[in-house]
Amino acid sequence: MTTLTDIRTAAAERFFGAEADRLARLCLAMAERFARGGRLLATGTSAAEWSDARHVAVEFVHPVIVGKRALPALALPPDEVSAHVRTDDMLIAFGPVPEVSADCLLITFAAPDDDVFVAQELVETAYHVLWELVHVFFDHLPRAGAGTGASSFLYPFLGGGTVDMEPVVADVRASVLAKGAEAAALRAQTLAHNDDVLTAAARAVRGCGTILALGNGGSATDAMDAVADLRVGGTVRALDLTADAAILTAIANDIGTDALFSRQVIAYGQPGDGLLAFTTSGNSTNVIAALAEARRRGLVTVAFVGYGGGSIAADALADHVVVVRSEHIPRIQEAQGSAWHVLRERICQG
Q1: Phi, psi dihedrals of residue 212, rounded to the nearest 5°
Q2: Per the confidence metrics, is the pTM higher than 0.70?
Q3: Predicted confidence band at 150 (pLDDT cuts at 50, 70, 90)?
């Protein structure tokens, strides 16, 4: 019998097998534009597409892997893109492509899968791969153009003057295939090892009133995506606790970042509601505080964690803990996305 895991693995093999060379060459083109001062813009129309656009921006601007530099990226609504885009910029469009007049490199993804959630998972891995591998080319671009535009002076040691980029493209192509396979394998492992947890969590969440969702950085965009998925059809009430910049900055400024989410749980959470928490480390203090507050108030709590679970798993700080056994943040987020999609399906099936 073909399982959801089999479907995901086969889809990844098809997609990255077909697109590895194109993705490698796109990394080179992006590196060249970043070196000339270009920025990466991302846009999306639907709530789910907007969460991907925000995910792209935060990953490029705030590199979470040691040695990766910050690159200029910005998420914009479609009707604002034309006012901001300029020569040498790049635009990733999730959904309809807005009209732009500048010399802009347009990037779209068309993952060939009938399941919209599987397709979204493949796209997430694709833009993570772009983020991971675009950096490879900075070390090989000719010195005259190497760097990151206005910030090039920060990296005077980069740019080895390589002229023939084909060997680098070949290495990156192989890395794309390896990362696609790694992502598929971790998704399979995560779904298999957490099957019982996902079933129990679905049963518990199914009867909840309102679902609150939260996370930091890339995990915040996972929370955004979860809320968007739950609101489809209007059958589930869901709140994104990362959405209101005024509330977040007020709490952070007046109290501190540890209270970002717990204060909102106090304001919005009721007994019988649910809380979805996304964290790659399993140790984020503001997530832990929110889980503790939710438990005190009688909410069902579900946590998606990486790095073997962190303190959330070790100390059973959530009712249901979905563990991704990896220490590589992009792969953790991708596996968490698949686990969430399976959980959502099981919630809705009930």
Answers
A1: -95, 145
A2: yes
A3: very low
